[in-house]
């Protein structure tokens, strides 16, 4: 069976107040890995203890640009302490020329520094990165051409942007180590896996065959994050993957 991870943003209704419960419950459901979306002041030693207790591996974090600008050394140390080798920038202000130039300058400085520490830097897309902006460029194309960033392809947002998620994954090849497996409608309404119109089954099949690390995300909190992510793992258990 494929090992599935969960993006902890899916459980944002409880992670800040009770990270212990969040990790305990995803382990019970059958998720094997966690991709964090903030640590809310929890010390690295505490998070590592929970991960070890529940048999969950930290496969990545969504870490904002501000954390890397303002506390680079601390961010690196935290990741190493919890055994996480992948830092994923979850989005950035790259929709005008000034913004993307600043971002590219920063990531090109950070990538070799992180590599020296055994860490890899990735970028997670929404839909806007695949669309031409007013300044006349497509942000994701600029990132691909001018940096050595890896890409976590959010397959739902690629779908919302009018792209074929499988073609996107194919195009970037080995630069894609992680994907977000997510469902929803083209109007930007997210849903649990199997309840939207995104090509989830096809994406899942491709990702498994090509060895991508699959991180589930479900954003609706309908009626709670735990119920959303349990619906998702139930869908995956019937997929035969």
How would you state the average pLDDT, rounded? 97
Q: Specify the overall morphology.
A: globular
User: In the CATH classification, which architecture applies?
Assistant: Alpha-Beta Barrel
Low-confidence stretches: none
Summed up, the helix count is 10
> How would you characterize the largest beta sheet?
8 strands, parallel, barrel
Which percent range fits the helix content? 40-55%
Query: What is the percentage of strand-forming residues?
Result: 15-25%
Radius of gyration: 17 Å
Task: Classify the oligomer.
Answer: single chain
Write up what this structure looks like:
The protein has 241 residues and is α/β, with parallel strands linked by helices. The protein has one domain (4-237): Divalent-metal-dependent TIM barrel enzymes (TIM Barrel, Alpha-Beta Barrel). The chain is 43% helix and 17% strand. It is built from 10 helices and 10 strands. The chain has an 8-stranded parallel beta barrel, surrounded by 4 helices. Helix 6 (139-146) links the parallel strand 5 and strand 6. The longest helix is centred in the middle third of the chain and has 20 residues, at 97-116. It is globular and about 45 Å long.
